[in-house]
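Dear colleague,

Thank you for sharing your sequence with our group. We've completed the structure prediction you requested, and as agreed, I am returning the results in plain text so they can be pasted directly into your records. Please verify that the sequence below matches your submission; if there's any discrepancy, let me know and we will rerun it promptly.
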Amino acid sequence: MALEIAPTVRALGNSGLDLYAREADFQREKVARTMTQLAVAIAALIAVLLFAILHLYRLNANIYRREQENKQTSMRMSTVMGTSLDGVIVCDANGLILQFSPAAEGIFGFKEEDVLGQEIGSVIVPDHMRKAHDAGMERMRDKGEKRVVGKGRVKLEAKHREGHIFPVELAIQSATTDEGEIFVAFLRDISNRVAAEAELVAARDKALAGEKLKTDFLSTMSHEIRTPLNGLLGNMSLLRDTTLSPLQERYVGYMETSGRLLMSHISDVLDITRYDAGKLSTRSRPVDISALLQDIVDNQKGTATRNETSLTWRWRGEPMNRVLSDHDRLQHVLMNLIGNAVKFTRRGEVSVTVENVGEADETELLIKIADTGPGISADLAERIFDDFVTGNVAYDREAGGTGLGLSIAKRFVDALGGEIGVESVVGEGSTFWVKLPVTPAGEADDKPKRPAILLPTRPLNVLLVEDNEINRIVAREMLQAEGHLVVEAHDGPQGVAAAAETHFDLILMDISMPIMDGRAATRAIRNSNGACKDTVIVALTANAMPEEQREFLADGMNGILTKPLSRPALRDLLGQIGRPSSHETHGMIDTGHSDQTRDTLGEEAFVKLRSRFVTEVDEFQDWLESGEVHDFLEISARAHKVAGSAAVFGAGPLGKTLKQIERAAKVGNVDDIRDSSARFAASWIQTKAQLSQ
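Please find the predicted structure tokens below.
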């Protein structure tokens, strides 16, 4: 049986072994899979750990870097606060001091440890400003209103530890921290700067006072020099009317030449002062360049002949005879340059050339004065246009002069917007050149507006108000020589009294007089109801400053005669007074009087004054027609004021209607005021139209 079942048992055993083998293989595969999964998990965990380690390393590096940066920033801030020239004070929202820089310690005299935790107002704010400071802090805490914070630098006063008050410059900024809002104040002690500014202001005031003193001095000296010079030249003019021997006539001629030279020097100094003060005005009018140069050349021909020198002039290129420029300034420049060339050239040549060197749409005249004289050294050429520079200051120099001619010429050229220069070689000669921007002018009108000198048609009754006896005698003799009647007044009150009692055709009024000067006397005559209220008053003065002359006209004077008094100027004035003015009056404007005012003031000042006059009349008309009830005295005063302005511009008909308004207002006649106002409005329309022309 055993033998029989042996195969079966063997098969069963083999089967079991086979089953066990398969199970073992399955278990091994399962363990292998588990181990593989575990290995993957461990690898992933290691990777995560490595990433975490790397991330932590980076975080640690960043934290370390930030700590270093914060440390460096803190060190920089400490260094900045420690070395800042401005005091730095840090406070919290309640004004308690958190930081107090070394500069703040130096400014206020406190140590940081002494003020930490204290309220800033009690430390640095002056007692008289504590209430305002406390109110500002309270307003900021309650409403958040910040009037100083972030507004830039402001000037305030601060208190030192020792109690004295000093000026500071303050700027406040705010910042938000973990502990709340803080305020950083930057303060600077500006005591030295304020003191320096005060010194600068004092220096400026002193300089302005000195400038005014210089102007006043020149004005006074102009008067003081011109007054005796008027007597000198006037008496020489009268002396020529007497019988003189040839030798005496020659001596008188010498004296007149010396007097005119002295007057030229005075004018030169005044021109320099006007330019340096910015008051040198120019007047643009048509100028015949060819005629101007020919006149100057003719004038210098005699000197050139004595020096055995030829003097010629010519145009280079197309001639441009008439241009717009300032005739007097240009004549002064060319006369000086050509005169110098002729004066310093012996047995040689002086040639003047004129050329248009401008572009198509611009005109520039280049005038060259070339001579074969001794020439100018390079050192002298650099400063030849400075004041008081002459080629030779020795006592034995051949040609005289003050050294102001070229400096004044340069000032005039600058005022005209041009350039001036010189090119010279010692021993060969010099070439002075002037380049001027000009505007071409039309052809000249050969028909003169009026004769140069008018002759009176009747004897005039003249009131002469003059305190200087010699000048009074000279003016009286000149007037009487022309056949006029003269009444003399020795001062302002006498002149006002005479003008109130007697009607005069003309009043010659000196300006500088004792008791009452000419300006005050003129105002008194104009504001009175005397016989000469509307008489022509002409200033007879040595005050030649333009700004003073404008003031004379504003006081009610009609014109100005500058001392020394010349017969041609006096005759011209008398001719205008003693003849009917219809030949000069075109409609509403006396053009002759207006031109005289323009000549006195200069073009620029005349235009400004005319514009102001138009505004003044417009405002008066608007006020008069406003419909409001005006006081009679105010109407009279304003009408009188505007009438005085109208007289300056020769607006006779307008001034007449204004005077009618003034008289009607003085007596309170409403109907006459209304009628005169209507005539005034109609007259002003025509006058304004002619003024604009």
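Summary note from our side: The chain has a mean pLDDT of 81.

Kind regards,
the structure core
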